[in-house]
Amino acid sequence: MSLVNRAMRAVRERGLALLSADRPDGKPPGARDTEDPALFRPLVYGDPDRLHVHPTAILNNALINLSSGNVTIGEYAFFGHNVSILTGTHDWTKFGAERQVAVPPSGRDVVIEEGAWLSSNVIVVAPCRIGAHSVVGVASLVMGDVEPYTVVAGSPARVLRQIPRPDAPAAAPAGPDAGEAGRVGAG
Question: Where are stretches of biased composition, namely Low complexity (predicted)?
């Protein structure tokens, strides 16, 4: 096993052990109660102190790479299976072993705000912010910010529609199907 592989294995094992110490039940943040805990446990690479997960978030079996930035996951955010959050990158101008280890130490943060839903097989590439109550469609590639209350999908992810905000006033009916309220002079 190469030196790089041994180092990554040590970080992964240490990271999972430290994350498990954060919860009284010994499970890592974002884990769910299940018969098969491995299915609902995120795999974390990098310094676990860079991961900030609200206790109500559900991460399932996500891969979270913390090599080059912090990851913050907000209240009631949830992931489908196999979501990857990648803060790390490599210097493509380097070659061989140098390319493997040439990773920026910081500056590539990911913030996933309250109530955001990342469907299965989504890949998020830092730096980016996924806004509150937004939805990312299955197998999408997110490479930039997603506005709150927005549905995005695709590779790269594109805006499909806006989600009505619960506090927004209802629009007045208009057009031929509006009934009496939509007609001029009605009432």
Answer: 168-181
Q: Give the predicted TM-score (pTM) of the model.
A: 0.72
Q: Is residue 165 part of a domain?
A: yes
Is residue 74 one of the residues assigned to a domain?
Answer: yes
Q: How far is CA 176 from CA 173, 179, 182, 184, in A?
A: 9, 7, 8, 12
- Reference 160, options 176, 178, 186, 137; nearest CA is 137
The stretches of 21-159 forming alpha helices (DSSP H) are 97-101
Residue 129 domain-assigned?
Answer: yes
Number of domains forming the structure of the chain: 1
> Which residues touch 38 (CB under 8 Å, ≥6 apart)?
61
Residue 52 forms beta bridges with which residues?
Answer: 72
Mean pLDDT across 29-38:
55
Listed residue (173, 176, 148, 179) closest to 163, CA to CA: 148
35 pLDDT band (50/70/90 cuts)? low
In percent, the amount of the chain with pLDDT more than 90 equals 63
Q: Which domain holds residue 165?
A: 3-182
Cα–Cα nearest to 96, from 2, 1, 7: 2
Instruction: Note the pLDDT of residue 4.
Output: 46
pLDDT of residue 45: 92
DSSP-derived secondary structure letter, 12: H
| The pLDDT of residue 69 is above 90 | yes
